[in-house]
Amino acid sequence: MVIIEMNPRISRSSALASKATGYPIAKISTQLAIGYNLINLINDITNNIPASFEPSIDYVVLKFPKFNFEKFNNKNFLSTVMQSIGEIMSLGKDFKESFIKGIYSITENDFLPSFIKGKNYLNFKFKLIKKIK
């Protein structure tokens, strides 16, 4: 695990990391703050394994923001002041799979460019995946 940010509070990124790894960051942090030792704490999710053990995962997790383009008269652009209205978490066996799942889950049906509409969507999807590889 790579630490990308340190906060004295539990943030949305901390919640994402908890969901992704199955490690109860908020609970363990609270117990450490009130004086418990990490060696003595048990991870409730894995039961008999101490909380000091690093979670082992064999997947990639990505976080994607969701923007509300409908609010801006169908202008498909991002500016420096546009804020996301939510976010999604995607899991995959590698970066490519997780990335594609994330894109699919935040887009609407009308996301497909006009040159694809009316054609075989699955055929396009496989060509796109092949190009990414």
TrEMBL record:
<keyword id="KW-0436">Ligase</keyword>
<protein>
    <submittedName>
        <fullName>Carbamoyl-phosphate synthase large chain</fullName>
    </submittedName>
</protein>
<dbReference type="InterPro" id="IPR005483">
    <property type="entry name" value="CPSase_dom"/>
</dbReference>
<dbReference type="Pfam" id="PF02786">
    <property type="entry name" value="CPSase_L_D2"/>
</dbReference>
<dbReference type="GO" id="GO:0005524">
    <property type="term" value="F:ATP binding"/>
</dbReference>
<keyword id="KW-0067">ATP-binding</keyword>
<dbReference type="GO" id="GO:0004088">
    <property type="term" value="F:carbamoyl-phosphate synthase (glutamine-hydrolyzing) activity"/>
</dbReference>
<dbReference type="GO" id="GO:0005737">
    <property type="term" value="C:cytoplasm"/>
</dbReference>
<dbReference type="GO" id="GO:0006541">
    <property type="term" value="P:glutamine metabolic process"/>
</dbReference>
<dbReference type="InterPro" id="IPR005479">
    <property type="entry name" value="CPAse_ATP-bd"/>
</dbReference>
<feature type="domain" description="Carbamoyl phosphate synthase ATP-binding">
    <location>
        <begin position="3"/>
        <end position="10"/>
    </location>
</feature>
<keyword id="KW-0547">Nucleotide-binding</keyword>
